[in-house]
């Protein structure tokens, strides 16, 4: 497309832009409490973003959800009640964190379990390495100078970095 | 050119199959000619993939709208450099990019070692060919970028058709950083194939000693460096383009790139144990296996539609192929390990709990726990739906809560680990190395609290950042002071000499400083502010120390898009500091729009301004402004990490002092001056 075509199409493009931009309507300023609660909710447009952070172009849900949140906050509902009303409307998926009770509390437990298991393994490994099986004393001539030098070189290498 | 690209990829596939089969036959028969033939076929695969990649680039640059991929991802008015980014903007092209970058690594490895390691390289060639064949199967038969557009003709026969123009590139990708972010990220992900291939080859071929570790050291660091840089570039792109005020949202695709970086970091540290002490052989081989598998698993997550993400490609059946490949790769790793595990017998011995060895164990533990936390959080929604039938979300607040303490513990180990001695660290050494830095760190933390810092994690981060930075600087200082005393050179020159003598060690310290800077930047998140309001021309907003005035709103038409732009004057203390131009663009070719954020960035904070659209009630433009402290430190830290990685890749320079001591030995014997002590290489206290 050359420049003259672009110029001819400019009014059409401007109109299309106006239509598009007007669909990108946004919510006004929310209260601090609404912001805080919005951080505990996920936008249900399937973007996976926190409700207050979702502003991706074409999102059809965040504006309505934020408005709903503001209304509930303005009605002075308790935090639990506000969150519960969203859960009833959208399901558990609307909460940004897994619940801390029931089966889903497992999500919180897994990192801790992994740490505990890993730590246990490290302790076992350290104990094992600190008390390795003692080899039977070698019978034979005393350590040669060559062997001693090789040992020195090994120590030098090992402590190099 | 479409046929040329198709044939090039098909030939690459056939050559890959030959390289794989001939490689196995060569290992069995040990015939030199067959070994050479398999290697040459492996290199031919790479050249053919480059031709395929080049032809797709040509089709995009020449606006060939008879090709489905070009129609879907480009249009005539798309700027030239963005046509380059269109190569990987779709599923098919991004898989070809994967094959392309992998082929560069494979060619480099096969060519570099073509006359070396004859016992190991045939195995390496087979593993690399196997991985290449998988991706070439996808490129040729599952997601080919060379599909032509066709339609039924009057007689029912298929006719080729060409469109007048294409649908254009996704607006989110129309940003200069997209020209480098995916190639750099993929260079990291594909790069881990090389250490994986050498590790598996060493296991299969029972290659003696730690040779494979030495051989893959640079490859691993290159892949790790690319992946880290790719992750940070992706974060910067998200920050500058998506317009939500942040840089990391723990999206499944972001997590998919972070996981192999975490295990790759663990691997980079734990191989030192094997090199120096011959320990952790089993662990290292599994770490490199897991890292490679996570690169493939991440690609599976991105492309399968298993988890929802704004980054993900369109859902397709390609995920089954990745899943099949992962299962096959796991089986190969397990069988290889089962049959050859006696080869990995280590002489593990630990003299003291307070030693470098222990610190590496804890470092690996924490990195792996971080990886498990990210992986489990990413997959838990799928798991929960599978078990309970209802889906839940695991969003950023979960990941932040879980990973913050893990991250801080890692930061602590970053300071402690490198300064512990191998085998055993005495109490006196601990006091000497850590006493001062820890005290100053605590003083900094207490001062911060006195100045109003009330966030526990931020205060801890401050204490640890000061502590780690001082321990590293002291390490440089002590080493440089010794060199300076012996050579007479100034301290700065001594630091340079010290670093160049052991680039891996001191490059690693530079990387650690970069990590500290990133942590400082992340800690700023705790003090983010934002404000959103209707701002018609003339309206004003105050956020933090900044006073914003919307001067005008303009609509203009550019070649590829039209834009609605605000002109915001930013004042501070009554003085104008900058003009910002946040905008929303509309791309007519694909009927999509996107934001362009305007950022005023300083070391202290970023003023981040988004034109968010028009208010539903007043139809007035809405400006969303964020004040994000310390964000610039993250990008600075990233640059320092890259610098440290590059430094670590530089070969060590031999100390000149030792040579000088030898040459001066003879004159010294007849000199009346006191004899000089023979100088030995010094790389800092151990």
Characterization of this structure:
The complex is a heterodimer of chains A (161) and B (686). Chain A has 6 helices and no strands. Chain A has helices at residues 3-23, 32-38, 62-74, 79-90, 106-130, 145-158. The radius of gyration of chain A is 32 Å and the shape is elongated. Chain A starts with a helix and ends with a helix. Chain B is α+β, with helices and mostly antiparallel strands and 686 residues long. Among the domains of chain B are: 1-78 and 100-148; 526-633, no CATH class. Helix content of chain B is 61%, strand content 11%. Chain B contains 20 helices and 12 strands. Chain B has helices spanning 2-29, 32-61, 68-73, 80-86, 91-112, 121-142, 181-191, 193-205, 211-242, 252-277, 281-304, 318-340, 356-388, 396-416, 427-450, 456-487, 491-501, 503-523, 631-649, 656-670, and strands at residues 150-152, 158-160, 529-534, 540-543, 546-557, 562-572, 575-580, 583-587, 592-596, 598-601, 605-614, 621-629. In chain B, the strands form 3 sheets. In chain B, strands 4, 5, 6, 7, 8 and 9 form a 6-stranded antiparallel beta sheet that branches. In chain B, strand 6 and strand 7 form a beta hairpin. In chain B, helix 5 runs antiparallel to helix 6, helix 8 (193-205) packs antiparallel against helix 9 (211-242) and helix 10 (252-277) runs antiparallel to helix 13 (356-388). The model of chain B is unreliable at 666-686 (pLDDT under 50). The interface between A and B is large, with 69 and 88 residues.
């Amino acid at each position: 497309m050359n420049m003259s075509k672009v110029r001819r199409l400019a009014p059409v493009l401007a109109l299309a832009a106006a239509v598009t931009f007007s669909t990108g309507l946004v919510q006004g300023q929310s209260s601090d409490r609404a912001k805080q609660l919005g951080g505990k909710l996920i936008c249900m447009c399937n973007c996976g973003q926190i409700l207050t952070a979702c502003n991706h172009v074409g999102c059809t849900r965040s504006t309505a959800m934020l408005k709903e949140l503001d209304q509930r906050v303005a009605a002075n509902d308790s935090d639990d009640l506000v969150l519960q009303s969203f859960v009833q409307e959208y399901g558990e998926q609307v909460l940004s964190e897994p619940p801390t009770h029931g089966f889903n509390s497992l999500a919180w437990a897994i990192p801790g379990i992994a740490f505990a298991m890993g730590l246990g393994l490290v302790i076992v490994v350290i104990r094992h390495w600190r008390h390795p099986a003692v080899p039977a004393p070698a019978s034979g001539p005393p350590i040669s100078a060559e062997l001693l030098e090789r040992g020195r070189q090994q120590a030098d290498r090992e402590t190099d970095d | 050119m479409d046929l040329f690209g198709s044939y090039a990829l098909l030939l690459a596939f056939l050559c890959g199959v030959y390289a794989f089969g001939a490689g196995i036959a060569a290992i069995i028969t040990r015939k030199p000619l067959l070994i050479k033939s398999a290697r040459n076929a492996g290199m031919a695969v790479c050249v053919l993939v480059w031709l395929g990649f080049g032809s797709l680039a040509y089709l995009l640059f020449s606006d060939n709208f008879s090709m489905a991929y070009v129609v879907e991802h480009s249009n005539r008015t798309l700027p030239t450099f963005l046509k380059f980014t269109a190569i990987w903007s779709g599923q098919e092209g991004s898989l070809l990019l994967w094959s392309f970058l992998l082929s560069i690594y494979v060619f480099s490895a096969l060519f570099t070692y073509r006359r070396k390691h004859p016992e190991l390289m045939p195995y390496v060639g087979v593993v690399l060919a196997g991985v290449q064949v998988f991706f070439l199967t996808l490129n040729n038969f599952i997601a080919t970028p060379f599909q032509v557009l066709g339609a039924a003709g009057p007689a029912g026969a298929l006719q080729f058709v060409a469109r007048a123009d294409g649908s254009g590139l996704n607006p989110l990708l129309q940003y200069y950083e997209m020209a480098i972010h995916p190639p750099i990220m993929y260079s990291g992900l594909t790069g881990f194939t090389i250490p994986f291939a050498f590790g598996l080859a060493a296991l299969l071929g029972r290659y003696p000693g730690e040779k494979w570790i030495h051989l893959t050291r640079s490859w691993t660091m290159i892949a790790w460096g690319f992946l880290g840089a790719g992750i940070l570039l992706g974060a910067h792109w998200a920050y500058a383009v998506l317009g939500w005020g942040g840089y990391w949202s723990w999206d499944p695709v972001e997590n998919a790139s972070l996981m192999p970086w975490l295990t790759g970091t663990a691997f980079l540290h734990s191989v030192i144990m094997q090199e120096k002490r011959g320990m952790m052989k089993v662990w290292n081989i599994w770490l490199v296996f897991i890292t490679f598998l996570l690169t493939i698993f991440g690609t599976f997550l991105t492309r399968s539609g298993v988890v929802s993400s704004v980054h993900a490609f369109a859902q397709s059946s390609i995920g089954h192929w990745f899943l099949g490949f992962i299962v096959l790769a796991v089986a190969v790793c397990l069988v290889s390990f089962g049959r050859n595990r006696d080869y990995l017998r280590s002489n593990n011995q630990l003299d003291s709990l307070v030693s470098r060895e222990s610190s590496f164990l804890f470092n690996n533990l924490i990195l792996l726990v971080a990886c498990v936390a990210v992986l489990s959080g990413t997959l838990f929604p799928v798991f929960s739906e599978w078990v309970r039938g209802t889906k839940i979300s695991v969003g950023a607040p979960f990941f932040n809560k879980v990973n913050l303490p893990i991250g801080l513990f890692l930061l602590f180990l970053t300071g402690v680990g490198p300064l512990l001695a191998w085998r055993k660290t005495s109490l006196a050494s601990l006091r000497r190395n850590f006493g001062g830095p820890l005290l100053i760190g605590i003083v900094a933390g207490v001062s911060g609290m006195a100045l109003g810092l009330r966030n526990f994690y931020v205060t801890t981060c401050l204490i640890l950042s000061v502590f780690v930075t001082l321990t590293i600087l002291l390490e440089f200082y002590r080493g440089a002071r010794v060199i300076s005393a012996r050579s007479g050179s100034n301290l700065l020159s001594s630091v340079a000499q010290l670093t160049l003598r052991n680039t891996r060690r001191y490059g690693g310290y530079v990387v650690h400083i970069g990590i500290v800077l990133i942590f400082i930047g992340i800690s700023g998140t705790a003090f983010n502010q934002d404000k959103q309001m209707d701002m018609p021309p003339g309206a004003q907003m105050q956020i933090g120390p900044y006073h914003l005035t919307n001067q005008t709103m303009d609509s203009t038409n550019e070649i590829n898009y039209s834009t609605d732009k605000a002109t915001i004057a930013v004042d501070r203390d009554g003085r104008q500091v900058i003009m910002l131009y946040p905008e929303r663009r509309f791309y007519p070719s694909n009927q999509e729009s996107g934001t362009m954020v305007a950022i005023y960035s300083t070391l202290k904070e970023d003023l981040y301004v988004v034109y968010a659209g028009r208010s539903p009630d007043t139809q007035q433009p809405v400006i969303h402004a964020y004040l994000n402290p310390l964000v610039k430190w993250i990008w600075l830290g990233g640059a320092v990490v890259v610098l440290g990685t590059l430094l670590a890749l530089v070969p060590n320079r031999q100390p000149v002092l030792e040579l000088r001591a030898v040459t001066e030995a003879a004159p010294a014997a007849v000199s009346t001056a006191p004899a000089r002590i023979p100088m030995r290489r010094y790389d800092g206290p151990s």
